[in-house]
Amino acid sequence: MLVATHLFIPGPTNIPEAVRSAMDIRMEDMRAPDFSTFTLPLFEDLKKAFKLTKGRVFIYPSSGTGAWEAAISNTLNRGDKVLMSSFGQFSMLWVDMAKRLGLNVQAFEEDWGKGVPVEKYAEVLAADKNHEIKAVFATHNETATGVTSDIAGVRKALNDAGHPALLFVDGVSSVGCIDFRMEGWGVDLCVSGSQKGFMLPTGLGILAVSDKALEAHKSSTMERCYFSFEDMVKHNDNGYFPYTPATQLLRGLRASLDLLFAEGLENVFARHSRLAEGVRKAVDAWGLTLCAEEPKSYSNTVTAIRVPEGIDSAQVVKTAYFRYNLSLGVGLTKVAGKVFRIGHLGAVDEIMIGGALFGTEMAMRDCGIEVAPGSGMGAAVEYFRETTTASANSRSEARLKLAS
Ligand SMILES: *Cc1c(COP(=O)(O)O)cnc(C)c1O
Q1: In what side-by-side order are the strands of the sheet with 166-170?
Q2: Confidence of residue 23 (pLDDT cuts 50, 70, 90)
Q3: Which atom from ligand 1 is nearest to the alpha carbon of 140?
C-alpha cells in the first residue's frame, strides 16, 4: 500500500488534522469588513506563543528567512556594528545575510556542536564602553546540529555590561516547542516561521518585536519596502495587510494556536523535552554520540546523530527514504556525511517517535552500523513507560478542552 512518507525532518513538520482541515476552505475576501474580527485576536494570541505582552508581531507571506531580513532592515543602519556567532547552517546563513545587507559583523566561528559563546559575548560587550555594537544576535536552536543556546545568558551578558544593544534571536525551530521568553529574556526581535513548531505549511515568516525595537525602527535608515514595519503597522492596526495575506495559512495558524493553548504551552514544552529524551536514550543505547557537545545544550526539537568513522550519513538517510519510506534530516555543509538528524518537533507523540526509531535502526543496520536490533527502541520504550503519567494526563485534558 502507498503510505505517505513518514516525516521526521526538523521542518516542515507534520500538520495535525485540525490544522489541515482549517485551511481547506474557500478563498476569502481579505478586505471584508469583518476580516479584522479574525485577525486582531490572532495577532494578540500569536504574541502569547512568544510570551510577549507588549510590542507586536508581524506575519509576512515568506519563509523564516524573510523574517530574518525584516528584523535587520527595519531596525538597523548600514555599517552598524553587530555581534554574531556561527556554529551551524542557520547561524552561519544569518551571519552571511547580515554581511550582505551591509552590517559591520563581528562573528565568532564556533565548532559545529557548540552554541552561542556567551562568555565571549560578555567580554566583548563589557569592553565596548562606547556602545558601538548596535545589536547582538543569537540562534536559539541551531537546527543543523541540534544545539540549544542560552538566551537568558546572553541577556545577562548585556545587562552586566549595562549595554543597550538590541537582542535578535532566531527562534524558528524553538518557538512553540522549547521554552522561549521574549519579555523574560529581554529579546527585542524574535524570528520564527510557520513550518516548524507552528505545525503549518511553509509560507509565513513570523517576527515578534519589542517596544524597544519599534522605537529603534524610527531612526533606522536601511532600505526596505516589502518588509517595512510602517506599512504593516498602518494596516495591521485595523486588522488588514499592505498586500494580499496568505489567508488559508492564517486560518491554519488560528487552529494551530488553539491546539497549542489547549495543551498548554508548558505541557507542549514538557512533551518535546520527554520525546527528545527518549530519542537520546535510543542514541545512547545504540552506542552512538550526538553532534551537540554538551548535555545542557541538547535540543528538544532535533537530534543530530554522528555516524561511526567510515560510514556516510547521507547513505543512512537515502536508505531510510527509499527502503522504509522514512524522511530523516541530512547533515548540512560542515557536517555533511557525518551526521543525520531526527526531527521531533511539532505534532509528534511517543508512537511516532517509536516509528522513527524503528526505521532508523533498520536503515543504520543496512548501512553497516552495527546497532543491536531493538536496542534504541527498547531504551525509548522503557523511558516512555516510566514517564507516561503527566503526559497522558495533559493529553486527555487537551482533548476535553478542544471538545468543549
Ligand atoms: C528553518 C530555519 C530557518 C530558515 O527558515 P526558512 O523558513 O527555511 O527560511 C532559520 N533558522 C532556523 C534555526 C531554522 O531552523
Answers
A1: 56-60, 205-209, 189-193, 166-170, 133-139, 81-86, 104-109
A2: very high
A3: 13
Query: Looking at residue 382, which CATH number applies to its domain?
Result: 3.90.1150.10
- The Cα-based distances of 251 to 142, 232, 403 in angstroms read 28, 19, 19
Domain stop point among 232, 259, 286: 259
pLDDT in tens, 361-381: 999 999 999 999 999 999 999
DSSP class of residue 334 equals G
65 close to ligand 1 (CB < 6 Angstrom): yes
What region does 129 belong to: left with phi over 0, alpha with psi -120 to 50, or beta? alpha
Q: Is the CB of 300 under 6 A from ligand 1?
A: no
With 0-12 / 13-18 / 19 or more C-beta atoms within 10 angstroms meaning exposed / middle / buried, residue 207 is buried
Instruction: Note the residue count of the chain.
Output: 404
Domains contained in the chain, number:
2
Q: Using a 6 Å cutoff on CB, does residue 198 contact ligand 1?
A: no
Element containing residue 155 per DSSP (H, E): helix 151-160
Within this chain, do residues 333 and 392 fall inside the same structural domain, yes or no? yes
Give tens-digit pLDDT for 211-228. 999 999 999 999 999 999
In a domain? residue 1? no
pLDDT at 161 over 80: yes
Among 68, 69, 149, 173, residue to substitute to test ligand 1 (most atoms within 8 Å of Cβ) = 173
Q: Is the pLDDT confidence value at 1 over 80?
A: no
d(CA 178, CA 200): 17
